[in-house]
Design brief:
Elements: H1 5-22, E1 25-28, E2 30-37, E3 40-43, E4 50-51, E5 57-59, E6 63-66, E7 71-75, E8 80-84, E9 89-99, E10 105-123, E11 131-137, E12 140-144, E13 148-154, E14 158-163, E15 168-172, E16 177-180, E17 185-189, E18 197-202, H2 213-234, H3 242-259, H4 264-276, H5 296-309, H6 314-322, H7 327-340, H8 343-359, E19 403-407
Parallel strand pairs: 10-11
Antiparallel strand pairs: 1-9, 2-5, 2-7, 3-4, 3-6, 6-9, 7-8, 8-10, 9-10, 10-13, 11-12, 12-15, 13-14, 14-17, 15-16, 17-18, 18-19
Helix pairs in contact: 2-3, 2-4, 3-4, 3-5, 4-5, 4-6, 5-6, 5-7, 6-7, 6-8, 7-8
Amino acid sequence: MKTTPVRSLLLMAGLVLGSLSAVAASAPNEATVLKITGTATMTIPGGAPQALQLGSKIPQGATVNTGPGAELHIQPFDGTVTTINANTSVTMDNLSLQTDNSGKITKQSAKLNLRSGNMVSTIDPTKKSINDYAVSTPKGVAAARGSQLSTGVQPGDVVTISANADSISFTQANGTVVTISQGSVLVTTPGAGGAAATTAVVTLASLANSTTPEAVAAKAAIQAGVTAMATVLQSNLGGLSAQGATDLAAKVVTIAVIANPTGAAATTATIVNAMTTTTAENANGAGSQAPNANDATAIATIINAATVAAPEQSQAIASASNAIVPPALQAMISKVAFDNAPPAQQAAIQSDLATVKSNQGEAAPPPLQNVAPPVVQPVVPDAITQPPTPNTPPSQPTPTENTTIAIP
């Protein structure tokens, strides 16, 4: 059959319309207040400050300010919680969702401009394929798709960025991209007499015995991650999957324990306690699927992470955790610690468990070496999934020791 010009035009129009219907649609999104302690406000451009409360919606372009002693947890998109600490100012530069023609979310984006103060971002690694999260600072932009990062901006544009779980990327103002590896912390120091600021990339291996100002700042950033992670777990915030929450918690614990081995027992107990005393506080009515006291695999994963990171602290870790978990989990915790402990500590771990059970009126436990090891969740491999934008220099190699770089 001969095709007329009109028919050709109609066919072309149909093809164009069909292709347009398949093109992803992007729309503005809003962040949601999940939990608030103290006072916080948001200011929409051209408007007056408005008090925030549980369930408040924060649109793109709004600036959030927290008061003294305040702590604000918001959800920029599903699977992510941003913990905004006291005396902090942050602007929602971008909040958007991209969907395909069936309405399925193909990309969820958030770019938060941290003007001053401190915040911790917890991003579900099981949603890496659609996550696009970034924090803008006066010295550059930190980006991640599935990790936890602590970010701080102090007077004089002193910037601290800590990779508390998986590695993250940091794009400087000149376009150079620096990889901040797991457990490393980027700390800027203003230059004297008009000189350029310098940035120390403080690596995890160097933190345990260091008392330099950079190391102190790094440890504080890592500890802030532990505190934020505990709140996310305990309050079931942000729509994180059970796998994602456990994966992030295990990595956060690992890094915090390596950075401060003597605090291993307290750090581990903080996370274990959060898992065993969960509550539902998500303002959307759809909290995270955070692990809880009945999730032995999740608890075992945390204990394993801590005792592998600091084997010499295994007895202390087991003792502190067994003091707060349900009795049904105590033998499992002791078994994980026993398997990772130095031989000199194994008898003490067995003895500690026997004492606990005796005090509870239970029979003496069997020898831990004869107990089958519990199931432990494998962690999601670390990977940089936020590639540099086109036409920017490639990432620098992951540093293996403290290095400094110049930041304009």
